[in-house]
Amino acid sequence: MDVKSSVLERYSEGAKSQQADLCCPVDYNTELLKILPKEILERDYGCGDPSRYVRKGDTVLDLGSGGGKICYIAAQLVGDSGHVIGLDMNHDMLSLAQKYKAEMADKIGSDRVSFYYGHIQDLALDLNAADTYLKKHPIKNKGDLEKFDAWQLKQKKTQPLIADNSIDLIVSNCVLNLVDDTQKLQLINEIFRVLKPGGRVAISDIISDEFVPDEMKADPELWSGCISGVFQEKEFIQKFIDAGFYSVAYDKWDDTPWKTINDIEFRSVTLTAIKAEQTVAMDEGHTVMYKGPYTSVTDDKGYVFDRGDRTAVSNIHFNALRNSALATDFVFIAPQKNACCATAWSDTLFTVRKIKDSKIGSGNDSGGASSSCCG
Ligand SMILES: C[S@@+](CC[C@H](N)C(=O)[O-])C[C@H]1O[C@@H](n2cnc3c(N)ncnc32)[C@H](O)[C@@H]1O
Fold first, then answer.
1. What is the Cα–Cα distance from 199 to 275, expressed in whole angstroms?
2. How far is the CA of 259 from the centre of ligand 1 (A)?
């Protein structure tokens, strides 16, 4: 059996009965599990808890939502104003998740979860629409195939399953590793496309310490078991940086490997990242100070923050740092109320800001001192 078919088959089985081999122990917030149906809890094939990153009001997309556990946890956290979309390519998993939709809506207080049929590496393509097209226009020759390709391009552009810049938080639990290596770059670019500027990523997945050799990758059992398709630990982070993400970090890292095979350690991690605001960066008087404990820290763009320096940053940089895993290591000083000097940001402005231009005020996060940031 090829690895792709093995993923479909194994998770169809996993939707119907609990597969012990696919389970990896996870500490969820037990309060949020209380209202979840037993059947969904039993079909848990995650390796982490990305729902910890959900905020009230978020539109959340769960890539490879399986039985819907993370979606129903997230639905309790987004509140009435938020929405959760679970996306999966497996009908049996989608049926399991959908089975409890009405019951969960009653328990949570409103119907705020949707489940979509799609591939996580091609978030624009609505597979239900593709099935409908193919029923009407079965492919019998190369001409039909070309027409189907043209239909897909048009469909994705005019009626994308997940639109550009529409999601606040992308979560995923043990799924990215199942995507074919040749489609992993497209997958990360799709995550970037659908996130709103300023949107966040929280992906729990298995990674390896060493690169996995081809003979292990060709093994359908190892691939569908979330082992041989994993990213190597440095590669995973680098792919997100290369795609344009900001503040990419391992926010959770299991010291103990989940499995060790052929001396390669496979462990669960949670990667977090941000899609920076896409507007023009401005100097509006935002200031940050690195608190330590190191002499300095350098970000992916090469900016060096020296410990204890009140450092001028652009509006975009300020927000990205504040949403990043490093946020607790910094002091954030918003522009003073009467700041008057918004100008386009340039790297030469990345200097120490005068104390009198970055007064913190009395417990006022938004500045509050009287002098202007113009100095
Ligand atoms: C290991 S299970 C994890 C399920 C769920 N996230 C959980 O925490 O229980 C992997 C899920 O991802 C789905 N999946 C795998 N590859 C996919 C792809 N390329 N596109 C969409 N779903 C995919 C499978 O159908 C399965 O439901």
1. 5
2. 20
Centroid of ligand 1 to alpha carbon of 117 (angstroms): 11
Q: Is the CB of 174 under 6 A from ligand 1?
A: yes
Q: Is there an atom of ligand 1 within 6 Å of 188 CB? A: no
Topology of domain 282-357 in CATH is Ribosomal Protein L9; domain 1 (3.40.5)
187-239 residue pLDDT tens: 999 999 999 999 999 999 999 999 999 999 999 999 999 999 999 999 999 99
- The whole-angstrom separation of Cα 86 and Cα 63 is 6
pLDDT of residue 19: 81
Q: Is the CB of 314 under 6 A from ligand 1?
A: no
Q: How many Å apart are CA 22 and CA 93, to the nearest integer?
A: 14
Cβ of 123 below 6 Å from ligand 1: no
pTM, two decimals, is: 0.90
Domain boundaries, the chain: 3-124+160-274, 282-357
Query: Can you read off the two tokens belonging to residue 83?
Result: 């929405």
173 lines ligand 1 (CB under 6 A): yes
Measured from the CB, is residue 162 less than 6 Å from ligand 1? no
Which top CATH class is 3-124+160-274?
alpha beta
